[in-house]
Structure formats: C-alpha cells, structure tokens
Amino acid sequence: LEEDSDTKEVEILRPRGNDNPAMQPPLLPDEVFMRVYRLARRDGFSVLIIASVFALFAAMMGDMSGALIGLCIAGAGALELQGCHLLREGEPRGVRWLITSQLALMAVILVYCILRLINFEPELIEQTITPQMREIFTEAGYTTEMIKSLIQKIYYLTYSLVGLITIIYQGMMARHYYQRRQAIEQACTED
Predict the structure, then answer these.
(1) Is 10 helix (H, G, I), strand (E, B) or coil?
(2) pTM of the predicted model, to two decimals?
(3) Contact partners, residue 26, CB within 8 Å, separation at least 6
(4) pLDDT (tens digit per residue) in 7-24
(5) By the 8 A CB rule, do 125 and 156 touch?
(6) DSSP letters along 32-88, please?
C-alpha cells in the first residue's frame, strides 16, 4: 500500500507478477493433454452436429451435392471425435486422427468452394431478382448488368474468402495439434 501525502488517498498496488505468457513455465503434459482433448471434443461435436443439420436441410431441398458435402464435413467431425476417443483410452495415435480430421475438413471445404466457383450460373441471378428489387436498383441508378456484375463479384469474393479462412483456421488447428503431440504422448505413457 502506498499513501499519497497530499490527498490522503490510499492506492492499492497490483502485485507484481509475471504476466508475460512467454515467461511462464511450460504446461505439464497432463494439462496439455486435457486442453487438447477438450478443444478437440468441442470442435468435433460442433462440426458433426452443424454439418449434419446442413446436410439434412440440403437433402430436404433436393440439393444432393450439398447434402454429400455436408456429410463429408460431418465425417471430418467424426474423425476428430474418434481421435478424442483414442486419447481418452490412452492411445497417443489419437493425435494423428485429430490432425487428419482438420486436413480432411480443409480439403472438403476447399473442394466445395472450388466447385461453387467453377459452377457459377449467372442466369440464376436474373431469376432471383424480384420485380421490387429491380425497381429499387433502377431508382438507385443501377442497370441489370451492373447488378449481375456486382452479385457475381460478391459470389466469387465470398467463396474465395471461405476458402482462405478455411486454409488459415483448419491449418492452424492441425498445427496446434501437431505441436502438442509430444506432450500428449508423454501424458499417455505416464498413466
């Protein structure tokens, strides 16, 4: 505690600790194991459930290619959950399943994005623009060709960004699992 002599206020100083994560001691293998397990389990279930729901909706709408992609993505979530199961059983090879699941998920999403980019159908734009939308765009000074061009750019940008974000996120997840494999192997052999 320090006391300011002019105002008689007491200032409580924060204890001086080492807040820099780079200066912290490394985590114990058991802690690394539990963190990876919790992350993989949460991620695996999320991917499995969300992709399954989207696959079901795609199938109900008659989009069989979308349903197939959804099922493949759900399969990547199941791979991750299998890796979790192996880790829970003390099998260090579960880490390979976690890494493979991320790479499989990346591959499926990239194939989906590439297929969408290759199979862009500009004539569908004309069908999706309602007369009310056309009137609003016309009042704003946009021609039909300008609208088509704008929608096409947005379409390409969206799928390109999804692909890029997938490469970054799934790549970082695979790297995260890969970098922790030794600690996980150590935690599995200690038990």
Answers:
(1) strand
(2) 0.79
(3) none
(4) 666 565 666 666 666 677
(5) no
(6) HHHHHHHHHHHHHHHHHHHHHHHHHHHHHTT-HHHHHHHHHHHHHHHHHHHHHHHHH
